[in-house]
Amino acid sequence: MQIQNISLVIVCWIAAIASISYASDSVITKYGPVKSVESRDESVEVFKGIPYAAPPVGELRWRPPQPPASWTEVRPCNEFGPRSLQKNRKLRAGKQSEDCLYLNVWKAREHTETKRPVMVWIHGGGFTQGSGHQPGYDGTQLAKRGVVLVTINYRLGALGFMTHPALSAESPHGSSGNYAILDQIAALEWVRENISNFGGDPDNVTIFGESAGGTSVYLLTATPFSKGLFHRAILESPWLDPVIFRDLRAENENGPPAEFDGEEQTRRVLGGEPEDALAKLRALPAEEILEKVKQRWPVATDGWVFPKDPHQIYSDGDQHDIPIIVGTNRDEGTMFAPRRAFGGTMETYEQAMVERYGEHGNTVAGFYAPESKDELWEVAVKHIGDTWFIQPSREFARAMGRQGTPVWMYHFSKPVWGWMGAAHAAEIGYVFGNLEEPKPGDVTLSNAFMDHWVQFAKTGDPNIARMTEWPAFTTQNDAHLVMDKTIKVETALRKAACDMLDSILEDRRTQAPLVAR
């Protein structure tokens, strides 16, 4: 009898421990335990503000991210971490700091033995603004569909991309810049090491992002440093204007060496360039750096993070071989085109095209062919959409396809924001299921986006039996899925413009070899 009582106590004790473990809202990570809070839906919990790297401050400013300090007490993750310092006035009211390397995790509360696919969102904002916890990026709806959703912050502006000969000299790799990309890689390493404890599958990770987040996905798919950290990728309106890519030490067709910018900005801040320039810069408050130096910096071909120009990596077929979705929006340019586009006259329009395209300027000017100055804004919208987004997305898709990688293209064309139409970033609310005031058909379109994205994360193929068949893109079929009230397949998106720009870019790349300064 006594043995039976002891056995009963042990059984009850084990059951109690299991119950506590199952009901617990805490998870063990490599660096310490974390505790969740409720999300917008009781079936999903969220862990806010988990540090994935040490604060990049003081001597760690402009250095690769380092591991965070460990902790022993349960860390309540009930508040998002600070966003990276930035000048966006709409966002500056919230908490921001140089100490910004935090991520957030949404997961279903229901326990399953099977690990769920993981989706990691990289926010946009031109590499100068934004954060991973903007309201539109709330991961509740995607987590309800069976994925573990992660969003991240990373260093922005000068803090994330500054290049300088002295920074390169102190690096054992002779490199500077691209700290933001290294942050993103560190976040993916955190996912690989920890996400299993959140119910996620570290061997099935999809990265996705919009605008500069899409650019980040493009870069992460190119750099050898991220190989094996993710297994599928989605690029929404990747910002791939060639002028944002520069060589660290050599002049190329896009401009002077990236290190030149650092020297120029240092002189601007310090009134010269003393021998201890880096020490002086690191001693300045980050807010002062933010105010005194430019915020938009190039992505540098540094010989380390990017052994070659990213375009060359894709051209040579050295990128990661993973399934891809890439797409654009119909009215990308409405967010960026100035009302007095190209200087406001037909003469200044032609001059602007010649200034950008040199000997090809008249060809480009003639292609868009406005009949009067009243059409210049519409031309600017089309030109920006073609050159920043559509042509480079097609070029990227073709490069992936050349190595046999499955690629699917989409084009979002539903008007969302009044005169801006199907504008840049307008699809995000549909992708995350976070529509503020849905109109008829919006919920259906949002469900289609989420279903395709989650299916792709689960299987590497976005197709679902009950939905419109989405053919993989090839150079021959040039096919894409139109995401609108009616979802349908079309071909040859902006083909004439893309063909023209392909020819010009190839000519400029072959005629402009690198020139070291």
Q: Which key phrases capture this entry?
A:
globular, 20 strands, 517 residues, Rossmann fold, 35% helix, alpha/beta
Please, could you describe this protein's structure?
With 517 residues, the chain is an alpha/beta fold. It has a domain at 22-322: Rossmann fold (3-Layer(aba) Sandwich), CATH 3.40.50. The protein is 35% helix and 17% strand. The strands form five sheets. The chain has an eleven-stranded mixed beta sheet with strand order 3-4-8-10-9-11-12-16-17-18-19, with helices on both faces. It has a three-stranded mixed beta sheet with strand order 1-2-5, with no helix packed on it. A two-stranded parallel ribbon has the order 6-7. Helix 13 (376-402) packs across helix 16 (495-511).
Write the layout of secondary structure elements.
Blueprint: H1 2-23, E1 26-28, E2 33-35, E3 37-38, E4 44-51, E5 75-76, E6 83-84, E7 96-97, E8 102-108, E9 116-122, H2 140-144, E10 148-152, H3 157-161, H4 165-170, H5 179-194, E11 200-210, H6 212-220, E12 232-236, E13 245-247, E14 250-251, H7 258-270, H8 277-283, H9 286-292, E15 299-301, H10 310-315, E16 324-329, H11 346-357, H12 361-368, H13 376-402, E17 407-412, H14 428-432, H15 442-459, E18 479-483, E19 488-491, H16 495-511, E20 515-516
Parallel strand pairs: 2-5, 6-7, 9-10, 9-11, 11-12, 12-16, 13-15, 16-17, 17-18
Antiparallel strand pairs: 1-2, 3-4, 4-8, 8-10, 14-20, 18-19
